Fold:
Amino acid sequence: MTTIELRGLTKRYGPDTVVDDVSFTVGPGQVTGFLGPNGAGKSTTMKMIMGLAAPTHGSVTIGGRRYRDLPVPLTTVGALLDAGAVHGGRTARDHLLALALSNGLPRCRVDEVLARTGLGGVAGKRAGGFSLGMRQRLGIAATLLGDPQALIFDEPVNGLDPEGIRWIRDLMRSLAREGRSVLVSSHLMSEMAQSADHLVVIGRGRVIADTGMSEFLRANGEGTVLVRTREPGAFALRLTAAGAAVREGLESSLVVSGMSSDDIGALAAFHGVALSELTPQRASLEDAFMDLTRDSVQYQGVAA
Amino acid sequence: MSAPATAPTVRFADTLHAEWVKLRSLRSTWSTLACLFGVGLGVTALAMSSAGTDYAEATAADRAAWDPTNLSLTTYIVAQLIIGVLGILIVTSEYATGLMQTSLMATPRRSRLLAAKVTVAAAVAVVAGQLLMLMSFLLGQAMLSAQDVPSASLGDPGVLAAVGGGGLYLTAIALLAAGLGTIMRATAGALATLVGIVFLVPALAGLFPSWLQGLVDVWPTRGAAAVFATVPDPEFPHPWLNLGGMCLGVVAVLVAAFVVFRRRDV
Structure:
């Protein structure tokens, strides 16, 4: 079991404190989402975990050791911080081969990770000709080389098409299911809601929430449910009687809060009301995130 | 998934092997080497083609100082720049592409990574440098004897020392370049500095105050290049000491490179 532990991690560049006393733990068997607006300090924190940047204060350990003290780093942690960090003149296979050799890993691992990331067909092509999605896959292939127990991905779905996003999401879920510790950063709440089990929210370099995803959803996500029926007026009365708050939405729909979609469906069935739509509104998650980070957004546009 | 059978720790040979794969898998490595030999031997051929007329017009004193070995090796002036590019690119190509992050995540012990890079650079440069000097000597002597001008053979006194010393000189320049690349982290800056060191400073050396003349004695293209001669230059009577002095300077640059490479964030 490899746990990543951050303790009081601080990074200053001159007068700017980019990461300010950040402490959290990335545990095995789950995906930990690292969420924050642009410029919140996510990437700097990840660089400090990987020993690329030296913390001003504090410490990071991976399975109890500093990154640079790991005997065979790639077998402990695999990290994708920047999908562009390959030499465009080198083929995918040579890129991975050099990385595998540098950690004394067997050559067969190269073809195994190429196959797992679906790059087998382009292994002999130069990485410079790869699309962003293929570069992401190549970066992920590199993280899997050493079959590590901890994985770190910085904004892995940025710029990907829906198919690529789904593939990465499924991969992260399956890596966590295999018992690994997975840390993934994003600035999109909706992305986290679909892939993370645990959530660490950071703003202006400080941790502003460190909570299980289900608790976060319970606290912030039970916003509203969109309901459509032929008799909105009558059903609205029944919903109110059952303790929900109801207001009128667009096109004679009902926006229900204080009651889950399960309960609304059961209530409709009980009263024999035909529903044509019953949709939980996830948008409130983004709202919750915006509320949480409003004070800590570094670059804020003025509302038009 | 089963854990791969891995050694419990990484050996320096692994890091070295990885750096070699990185170097050999880039087309730019091979084109730079091709350029080194193409331009290097081309310059020798051009310089030697007029040697017959030069010798015919030379005075008796010039003929006494006639050094066919040195003539055939003057191509080092251009070759040092090309082999320098090779040394620079070993480090700066990783900064330009961002690959340095990936490399340091795989090999977080930074001195080990840079040591592997420097070792690979030295190995390639010593082979390429020695080979170029030998081929340039043989080509030059063949052209000289074809023009019925006094030429040298490898067995003549001082010839092997000049050819071998020339290869070492080029290796030292490649390592200097790798050190500059590490310190500058950019190809253009490192190359400009190298050009300044091997071309500009020697050209301006006459303007320097006398207390800097000691530096001129060990400077590339100046004192250190005395090793290419078989007829002793009265200004630099002990060429190996001059070359040794330049190597000490290269070591100093490499030490600085290791220090900054260990300290800087990537």
User: Anything to note?
Assistant: The interface with chain A takes residues 1-11, 14-15, 17-19, 21-22, 25-28, 93-94, 97-109, 263, 265-266 of chain B (CB under 8 Å).
